[in-house]
Design a protein that fits this description.
The structure holds 3 protein chains of 3 kinds.
Chain A lengths: L2 H25 L9 H6 L5 H11 L5 H13 L21 H36 L4 H14 L3 H15 L15 H7 L1 H27 L2 H8 L4 H38 L5 H10 L3 H28 L2 H4 L3
Chain B lengths: L9 H6 L7 H11 L2 H18 L1 H4 L30 H37 L1 H15 L3 H12 L3 H28 L2 H9 L3 H38 L10 H8 L10 H5 L2 H30 L2
Chain C lengths: L8 E14 L2 E14 L3 E5 L6 H7 L8 E10 L2 E2 L5 H7 L4 E4 L3 H4 L6 H11 L5 H14 L18 H13 L5 E5 L7 H17 L3 E6 L2 H7 L2 E6 L2 E7 H6 L4 H5 L2 H4 L10 E12 L2 E12 L3 E5 L6 H9 L6 E6 L2 E2 L9 H6 E4 L3 H4 L6 H13 L3 H14 L16 H14 L4 E5 L7 H18 L2 E6 L2 H7 L2 E6 L2 E7 H5 L5 H9 L7 H8 L3 H5 L3
Parallel strand pairs in C: 3-8, 3-9, 6-7, 7-8, 13-18, 13-19, 16-17, 17-18
Antiparallel strand pairs in C: 1-2, 1-4, 4-5, 9-10, 11-12, 11-14, 14-15, 19-20
The chains are: A mainly alpha, B mainly alpha, C alpha/beta.
């Protein structure tokens, strides 16, 4: 088999293994629950029978391995179980399935994240590459200093600053980003503008700094100096000599920051009361609704792992040493 | 260093002596050359430490003291007004320095002791200990920190000790990875091999040969790690699953006063109130980042010197 | 070596000054150098590390690396002033009329492009040739550079060919646009001696063939003697001496120039001895699954020096690792005073460890940068001999005196010492243990010639005074001649020969010993010519990789 494919398969295998181990860690969340959580979920008035029925429903009478296999099998079929909330001591079950709760919110979160990414990725790459090319100029120093400041800000600080300025003071944008599926796209984008802008600011700073470092590192290679000494024009140096070797580091930077976006989304959704899965997860954590927490954690972790996996595959596939084996 | 004062003979080569400076003198000389940003950072950090240590003497009221007037405006008895149940915002900001910074500091130290200690052992011993620890850390790091923390808090609940331990363990994975990487660079050095050939114990090699040489990157990492821990705890408190009332804490204060921001057109001061604790968090991380940035630049520059 | 009649001046540098940035300020690193190069002439630019050779070589192209700046003076190339020319002007010359051959070809070829694309790039971008012409010319050059499969090797990527071949390909790349001037920046420093011969011969022949002027930068006078018509000796950014090659070799004027071959003047009378202190018997060793030592036996007589020579990958250093116990052998044993040593380091007693000490190639990495000289020398005193406090201090001072260093070095950190001083401290650390055997792993190869001489003399004196035994690992035959009693020649993990020095250095010799010794450049401008005539087939075999 071609070494590139072999390496990619090895990396994919490792990624799957990581996903498996992460799913085990997330599954074991149920194992560590205190013994009286049945009463906690169903309320003090729950009878022993309803508690026992509840425990049976969760399968707590079966060994952990069996339950894991059942759990992961249903997860793979898109079934994350049933929420703890909405259950009553009387045994009346008004709980909803986790998928039902997550579905619409997941698409909202993806909408917000892609809005931020569409602005942030090109902007950060542009700033990072130009800062690296104009190294040690005023432009470079100004961009670096302002991004160093921005990465130090907590997301909610940026978010409230923007609310204070654009919503509360200037009243250009709504402070609550309550979107729903029935809205036209522009309306949704308008309402999600401030959360998206917050995420963009935070991501651009990180991403620009990493891009700058990666490009400077690349431009310090002896073969770049050699290209210049061969009389190659600045555009040739960049396009012919730097770019073919730059894909791996750049894709790494993008993937890392999109993964970071996944986490940043949680706080931002809470600030703007945006109906995404970040906010859902925080609410579930507060009410200790474990199935929902598990489902959200699994989605976040899987996104994170897959993004990093994608970056690794790209750097393998663009590595000349692997593309052209001896 | 210049060698131009040497002659052509081996005797002169062997005899040349360079001026030596004491550690403190060198530190002071470095500081004098430090850029403005590093100085701003240092001043910020020192002021926060002073406020945190002397909080009870600086604060006008008690940490949880409730006054009759909720949401009092700025000025008068209350410099920054009162919060939703009538506690003095200024007082809580000062105590917040102590709680938020103190908790983050303790957490970071625990993370370093755990992650750094295990990483040194892994780097020096190598073999299966290294393999097992590294793979375990890889898996923990495959889940985003905040998400993992949220999940663990939903399982164990948000007590102070849980928060400290959960964040410390999660962040120790990052410390582990960095410490192992820099320690690995030192482990391959000939002087470590020389110590092993001499018959030195592993403890001695870790303490005397490796630790002094990985200190600069670890100090820088401590600063960065502190920022991350500090921001994570603030974020958790802001989300309502971190430090619980009545403890004064900046993250929770932002959440509790967030509603005031809507009144910018009526009372801009009141609207700024929730930004005060958020700004306090931002200012400290900016300060630490400025100092770390300068320090990293300094130490990596030293490494390139011939 | 040029026979061309047009000897007009091609490159003229006047009072050139260049600043380098370090320690947060600018220092002058080239201090007013003049240089005149005629068409077709090859100038050797020689000097030790930090002399500013590369900086000057690049400045001849009007190029300054990041962190350097051309401050004043004039650089005229064929009537064009490069000093303050805009980069767009200089780019027209770079790659077409002036070309550069870098020290590390492996790092200087772009990993993403085929060799032939990179070879023809400059000629195409300057519009000198059409694509097909350039490709044909490149293949011709590969042939001239004696690369294997010259018609197809250009289709390979840089990582697919060996170091010696890459260095030839880089010279072909420089020749591709038939430039007037080539700057060779230490082009053979990274190569083994047997590979170096072939590359040198090929470079010399193409430079002669196209009557190209060249500046050949190196720290090795013997190498430059083969290439250059004139030699310029540089030290700390200043010219020490300018002279035609033969004149400089026969009658160096400046004392610094004379010091450049001081090591070659050192000689030691070899003595035979049968009192064996260290005996490596039929050792096999492997890193993981790759076997690196095959049936290696080395006998080390007491109080004598055994030099272990060989090229990179020959297993010299691995043999040292087996002796010290860092790499337990898979077969065979190491005997010390007739007693078998435990194979692994951790099974050896402190006393066994004390008896064999080690000195490393790079004193920079052999000493903990955070320990003072007193700590470094004092630790073995404390560890092996239990010395503490004043007794330890007294002994450290004695050892410092023994290695000819002043007592006030005791509280210095390694970063505050020069290269030679550092290596002396490492010697003192080894002596502190009072060992029977010291293993010296390339201890002089990172040092400048003059410092090498000092270290070798010190080692010889210590041996005479203390009777210590050396196992001296090196690839430098001049050093071997200076210090050894016996020589072990190694090749690909096997011992080719062990005998007393005079026997190894003179015929009859095994074929590899002969080839290795023949490949070591001599201080004789005719050496390479003679060697090529004598061994017409050496090139074909030397580049068998």
């Amino acid at each position: 088999m071609h070494p590139v494919l072999l390496t990619i398969f090895q990396r994919l295998g490792l990624g799957l293994l990581t996903l498996f181990l992460v799913s085990v860690v997330i599954f074991s969340a149920l194992e560590f629950l205190p013994g009286d959580f049945g009463e906690a979920v169903l309320g003090q008035a729950a009878t022993e029978e309803t508690v026992a029925a509840f425990r049976r429903e969760l399968g707590l009478d079966q060994p952990a391995v069996v339950r894991y296999v059942q759990w992961i099998a249903s997860v793979l079929q898109g079934d994350f179980g049933t929420s703890f909330s909405g259950r009553a001591a009387s045994g009346v079950d008004r709980s909803r399935s986790v998928v039902e709760m997550i579905g619409p919110r997941l698409s909202n979160t993806l909408f917000l994240a892609s809005m931020a990414a569409i602005i942030a990725v090109p902007l950060a790459l542009f700033l990072g590459i130009t800062a690296a090319l104009k190294r040690n100029t005023f432009y470079d120093k100004a961009v670096s200093a302002s991004t160093l400041t921005t990465i130090s800000f907590p997301e909610f600080f940026v978010a409230y600053l923007l609310i204070l300025l654009f919503s509360s003071w200037l009243q250009w944008f709504p402070s609550l980003a309550n979107v729903n599926d029935d809205m036209p796209l522009l309306e949704r984008a308008y309402r999600a503008a401030l959360p998206a802008l917050t995420l963009t600011l935070v991501i651009v700073a990180h991403m620009m700094r990493m891009t700058r470092a990666a490009i400077i590192n690349l431009l310090a290679s002896p073969y770049i100096e050699m290209a210049r000494l061969k009389g190659a024009s600045p555009s040739d140096v960049i396009l012919k000599h730097a770019l073919p070797n730059a894909w791996a580091p750049i894709v790494n930077v993008i993937a890392f920051n999109l993964a970071y976006l996944v986490v940043g989304v949680v706080v931002v959704e809470v600030v703007f009361v945006y109906p995404g899965i970040g906010q859902l997860m925080v609410d579930a954590v507060k009410s200790r609704d474990i199935p929902v927490v598990q489902a959200c954690a699994l989605i976040f972790a899987a996104t994170y792992i897959l993004l990093n996996l994608f970056a690794d595959v790209v750097s393998i596939a663009t590595n000349p040493r692997l593309l052209h084996p001896k | 260093m210049s060698e131009s004062d040497q002659g052509y003979s081996a005797v002169a080569e062997a005899g040349s002596v360079l001026e030596r400076r004491s550690l403190w003198l060198r530190a002071w000389l470095e500081l004098r050359k430090a850029p403005v940003s590093a100085w701003i950072g240092l001043v910020i950090i020192v002021s926060y430490v002073i406020v945190a240590v002397f909080a009870p003497w600086i604060a006008p009221y008690g940490e949880a003291e409730v006054h009759p007037q909720p949401y009092a405006p700025w000025g008068g008895d209350f410099i920054f007004g009162t919060d939703q149940i009538g506690r003095d915002v200024f007082t809580r900001l000062i105590y917040g320095a102590r709680n938020t910074v103190g908790i983050a500091f303790v957490t970071t130290i625990i993370a370093f002791l755990m992650g750094g200690g295990l990483a040194l052992a892994a780097a020096v011993r190598g073999g299966w200990i290294d393999q097992v620890l590294s793979r375990f850390v890889d898996v923990l790091m495959a889940i985003p920190n905040l998400i993992f923390a949220l999940m663990l808090l939903s399982m164990f609940g948000s007590s102070l000790i849980n928060i400290i331990m959960i964040i410390a363990i999660l962040d120790s994975t990052r410390v582990f990875r960095l410490t192992r990487a820099v320690a690995m660079n030192v482990v391959v050095m000939d002087y470590v091999e020389a110590a092993r050939l001499r018959g030195e114990s592993i403890g001695w090699v870790m303490r005397r040969e490796i630790l002094p040489n990985i200190l600069p990157p670890l100090v820088a990492e401590f600063g960065l790690r502190f920022c991350f821990v500090f921001l994570t705890i603030a974020a958790l408190s802001f989300l309502g699953v971190g430090i619980q009332p009545p403890t004064a804490d900046w993250g929770s204060m932002v959440r509790e006063n967030a509603g005031l921001i809507q009144f910018a057109q009526y009372d801009i001061k009141a609207a700024i109130t929730p930004l005060l604790p958020a700004g306090a968090i931002a200012l400290l991380t900016v300060g630490v980042n400025f100092v770390v940035d300068w320090f990293l630049h300094k130490t990596s520059g030293l490494r390139d010197e011939h | 070596m040029s026979t061309d009649t047009d000897d007009s001046v091609l490159l003229e540098i006047r009072d050139l000054r260049i600043d380098g940035f370090s320690d947060e300020r600018w220092h002058e690193i080239i201090k007013g150098v003049d240089l005149t190069l005629r068409r077709g002439q090859v100038m050797g630019l020689i000097g030790e590390s930090g002399a500013g050779k590369s900086t000057l070589g690049l400045a001849a192209m009007g190029f300054a690396r990041p962190g350097c700046r051309l401050t004043s003076g004039s650089i005229r190339f064929d009537g064009v002033e490069l000093m303050d020319a805009p980069e767009s002007e200089k780019r027209k010359l770079w790659g077409s009329r002036i070309c550069y051959v870098a020290q590390s070809a492996a790092a200087s070829f772009n990993p993403a492009h085929r060799l032939i694309e990179q070879t023809t790039e400059a000629a195409l971008s300057h519009g000198l040739q059409s694509g097909a012409e350039a490709q044909a010319a490149a293949r011709e050059l590969y042939r001239a550079m004696q690369l294997p499969n010259p018609d197809t090797i250009g289709d390979r990527y840089p990582h697919q060919v060996s170091g010696g071949q890459l260095q030839r390909a880089m010279t072909a790349m420089a020749m591709a646009s038939k430039p007037d001037l080539i700057i060779f920046d230490e082009p053979t420093t990274a190569l083994d001696v047997t590979t170096q011969v072939g590359v040198l011969a090929a470079m010399r022949s193409v430079v002669e063939q196209f009557n190209t002027a060249a500046i050949y930068i190196t720290h090795d006078l013997a190498v430059v003697a083969q290439m250059a018509d004139v030699i310029k000796v540089l030290r700390f950014g200043e010219t020490m001496e300018d002279a035609p090659t033969r004149e400089m070799l026969s009658a160096p004027k400046h004392p610094y120039t004379k010091s450049l071959w001081s090591v070659r003047a050192l000689q030691k009378e070899a003595e035979k001895s049968d009192d064996i202190v260290l005996d490596v018997r039929s050792v096999d060793a492997a890193y993981g699954s790759s076997k690196v030592l095959h049936d290696v036996s080395v006998r080390v007589p007491r109080g004598k020096t055994v030099a272990v020579v060989g090229e990179s990958g020959s297993g010299k250093s691995t043999t040292a690792r087996v002796i010290t116990g860092l790499l337990p052998p898979s077969a065979g044993k190491v005997f010390f005073n007739g007693q078998a040593l435990p194979a692994a380091l951790r099974d050896r007693s402190v006393e066994q460890l004390r008896q064999i000490q080690m000195i490393y190639q790079s004193a920079d990495t052999a000493m903990n940068p955070r320990h003072t000289v007193g700590d470094i020398i004092g630790r073995p005193l404390e560890f092996y001999h239990g010395l503490r406090g004043a007794a330890k201090q007294k002994r450290v001072l004695e050892l410092l005196q023994l290695i000819e260093l002043d007592g006030n070095f005791i509280d210095r950190l390694p970063g505050e010492l020069s290269g030679g001083q550092k290596q002396r401290i490492c010697i003192a650390r080894a002596l502190a243990a009072e060992p029977d055997v010291i293993i010296c792993d390339e201890v002089t190869s990172a040092l400048d010639q003059i410092v090498q001489e000092g270290i070798l003399k010190l080692l010889l004196r210590l041996q005479k005074e203390l009777g210590v035994t050396y196992v001296f690992i090196t690839h430098d035959i001049a050093v071997v001649k200076a210090i050894s009693d016996e020589i072990v020649v190694m090749l690909e993990g096997r011992v080719v020969q062990q005998d007393i020095k005079d026997h190894v250095l003179s015929p009859p010799q095994p074929e590899y010993t002969r080839r290795l010794l023949a490949s070591v450049p001599e201080m004789d401008p005719d050496w390479l010519t003679r060697l090529l005539e004598e061994q017409a087939d050496v090139v074909a075999r030397a580049d068998g990789d």
